Known about the structure:
By secondary structure, the chain is α+β, with helices and mostly antiparallel strands. The protein is 33% helix and 23% strand. The chain folds into 3 domains: 55-144; 173-226 and 322-371, FAD/NAD(P)-binding domain (3-Layer(bba) Sandwich), CATH 3.50.50; 229-316, Alpha-Beta Plaits (2-Layer Sandwich). Helix 2 crosses helix 5, helix 3 (97-104) packs across helix 5 (131-140) and helix 7 packs antiparallel against helix 8 (216-224). Bound molecules: flavin-adenine dinucleotide.
Amino acid sequence: MDRAATVGGRVHSIALGTTPVDAGASHVWSFYSRTRWWIQRLGLGAALVPAGGLGSLGIAATDLPGIVRAGLDVARLWRRLDFRSPQRAAPFDRASIRDYASRHLSAQLTSSAVVPSFEWNAFCSLSEMSQVLLLQGGRLFLRARPYRMRGGLQLFPEALARGLDLRLGSRFATRSLAFGPGGAVAKLADGSSILCAAVVVATGPGEAADLAEFAPSLDRFLRGVAHSTVVREWWNLPGRRAFRNEPLRLSFGVSSEGVAVARPAGDALFLSLALYGRAVREMGSEEVDSAMEQLRIGLLLGSTPGQPMTRARFRWDSAVTIFAPGHFRQLDQLVPSRPQGRVVLAGDYLVSPTVEGAVLSGERAAAEVMRLPILER
Ligand SMILES: Cc1cc2nc3c(=O)[nH]c(=O)nc-3n(C[C@H](O)[C@H](O)[C@H](O)COP(=O)(O)OP(=O)(O)OC[C@H]3O[C@@H](n4cnc5c(N)ncnc54)[C@H](O)[C@@H]3O)c2cc1C
């Protein structure tokens, strides 16, 4: 059951004219072993194509001492930086990436490599993310190659869900979960109830906390997890092949920022713009329009009046799950994917703020459900 009209949650593809673009998750990395296993198994392997992108990180010779220092930290903590078992990194979850960078890395390395790798992907600032993410990234970096799915990544959850008894749409939103001797009772928005032997709650953390009564420490954790906000827009500009072929970051005031990436698509310029930061949450559509226009003009070094183009926009008020300093320590203490009564939690916030994290959490939840004793009715 999902309250949305389509499967996939934050894996969601929309149309830019006739071209599918990813409004949510777009990149599947080479180290996503479970996701890639499922993609192969579902017959989608041929649609997964290299995405490029690492070439844009500008690293200078003067950055080498910082890289070596961080590399030594990663080597020392190697076994604890397993992003499949995030709780193992709990002892190092004591500061933000910004704090780590200011102690160990040069400002140039931070702005040319760390910001593009983390802020531009998580749509929040380095001070909001735990340094564990940076150290885990250091362990994964050598085998990190990005892929995207031709036709849009939503093909993946759609294929995963094929053949299941799906109920989609707002009337199937779960309103509450209650527990009794016969199992769990899910109350739905349309007023109906379903008796289940067990329930996997794979909503966001805040929504999970609203559905059932969990232990106070777990409830506090679930309600404390934050998400970044992003408005993404795509432009297809025919006849604009000449452009500055690098990602561009522009600042809009203190807390609202944007990132733009351009790539050629046939004889057109394909532009992907993102506005993020706390202020975006407050922005109305006119402010978004004008900030997007500034981003676009900044990238193209001029406006393009009267030019034919296609564009598409999507807004996420809860975009990427923020693994803030302290998140990993709480995971270590809570082990929240263990059953809570006949309810098991799943979601990226339990493993890693990625598609792979969501897939792994789902596999673990399924395994926990299979272990629950069978109820006599
Ligand atoms: C803009 C953007 C870019 C991203 N880029 C990447 C990327 O390139 N690579 C990557 O790996 N990850 C990326 N991510 C992160 C990735 O999308 C998420 O980590 C992952 O999809 C989370 O999956 P999930 O199943 O935990 O949560 P979700 O996908 O959010 O699923 C939760 C589901 O619960 C449903 N729901 C909530 N409440 C209820 C209720 N009461 N009743 C019924 N249903 C309910 C929702 O409708 C939703 O479908 C990106 C995310 C965004 C937003």
